[in-house]
Amino acid sequence: MDTKLLTVSQTKEYWEDNISVSDTPQLISLFSGCGGMDLGFKKAGFDIIYANDFDSDAQAVYSLNIGEIDKRDILSVGEDEIPDGDILTAGFPCQPFSNAGNRKGVYDSRGMLYKECLRIIKKKMPKVIVFENVKGLLSTKYIDGRNLAEVIIEDLSDMNNIGYNVVYQLVNASDYGVPQNRQRVVFVGVRKDMGITFQFPKKQDKKKLTLNYVLDLPDNVANNIDWPLSPQALEMVQYIPEGGSWKNVPYEHLAPRFQRIRNNMKKYHSPNFYRRFSRDEICGTMTASAQPENCGIIHPTENRRYTVREVARIQTFPDDFNFLTDTPRNITAMYKVIGNAVPVTLAYNIASAIMEQVFAKGKQNK
Fold first, then answer.
1. From residue 250, how far is each of 124, 164, 237, 253, 259 by CA, in Å?
2. What is the pLDDT of residues 202-227, one digit of tens each?
């Protein structure tokens, strides 16, 4: 059955018919963020038994929408404090590997946090592991000069003399039902004694992923508020047509630093700042900063940023997923946690493939 075409309720019924209740997979979530990955796995039939994230903004949103989350730094969490589980997911910090960052990679202390995942995996030995990170990880070198992706595979392949059959793929979220061209590398490892090598799901049709469909919000939807642009940004965006960028702004209306870049486009590799995607395009990657220099955050026809709810839709969070909590939060924090999240529908499609290949009735569940 093609589970990607099912509604959430139909999906639940499908998995109930194909998985015994006692075998419902138990999920350990590390670096959970505000819950994009976890919500996708939950919709695919997984039971979240443990979640952890150190970011207070992400914790507040996760607690409001999904449930309990361990708020401690992962460095202080003992392996025995985490329950046993069938699958472990981790979106360890991507900033050290991001093209938008300083690319310090493993030399940034956050770049070695995946080792904390290995520490817990070695103790728990779940049936399946899932890592998600930015494209930049694939070109990052480990401290001994080896490719970091290959190091991760080696670390997982020979663990406790069992190890995992690990595959990875650079995926574009728009190939899996997400209205956003967002490239991420996904690692999936299945414990070797399961006798299964994971196969990534087939790419899907991209119909109805353009902004035309995303921005059709119902009245009174929650969190439909935007972070006002600066006066300098407002001066520029009024000259940017739908589908254009800062290159459409007359030179005399550019801020001084953009004039310097315009004066030497070759030196700055012809950057495409202030991208205003048209309604007939699929949006570009939403980033945590929500800055026009870093992502296409400008509304197609209105001189403003996308609202929090519009960005959430681009990341495929449902409209009832709330980003306002009892604790007062700066609006920038809402953009941050959404931009850092794994798109829900991408997670759902990966989760559904894992469920079908590893945990469905008739599979080898050791």
1. 59, 56, 11, 5, 10
2. 999 999 999 999 999 998 999 999 99
Q: Residue 96 — pLDDT band, cuts 50, 70, 90?
A: very low
What value does the mean pLDDT of the chain take? 88
Residue 302, judged by CB atoms within 10 A of its CB (0-12, 13-18, 19+), counts as: exposed
d(CA 229, CA 108): 31
Closest to 336 measured CA to CA, from 286, 280, 296, 301: 286
**Residue whose structure tokens are 């938008």:** 100
Place of tokens 């589970």: 3
Count Cβ neighbours within 10 Å for each residue of 210-236 and write b for 16 or more, e otherwise.
bbeebbeeeeeeebeebbebeeebeeb
Q: Supply the residues annotated as catalytic.
A: 94
Residue 327 has what pLDDT? Answer: 58
CA–CA dist 315, 340 (Å, integer) = 10
Structure tokens at 289: 């900063």
Closest CA to 44 of 62, 27, 22, 69: 27
Q: What is the pLDDT of residues 127-171, one digit of tens each?
A: 999 999 999 889 888 777 888 899 899 999 988 788 999 999 999
Q: What is the pLDDT of residues 335-357, one digit of tens each?
A: 999 999 999 999 999 999 999 99
Cβ atoms within 10 Å of 162's Cβ, excluding its own: 12
- Tell me which of 90-94, 183-187, 274-278 is least confident: 90-94
| pLDDT surpassing 70 at residue 365 | no
Q: Are strands 183-191 and 164-172 parallel, antiparallel or unpaired?
A: antiparallel
Give the number of other CB atoms < 10 A from CB of residue 247: 16
- Edge-to-edge strands of the sheet including 164-172? 47-52, 26-30, 87-90, 128-134, 183-191, 164-172
Find out whether 73 and 127 touch, Cβ atoms under 8 Å.
no
Please give the single-letter amino acid code of residue 189.
G
Considering only the top CATH level, what class is 3-203+343-359? alpha beta
113, 93 contact by CB (below 8 A): yes
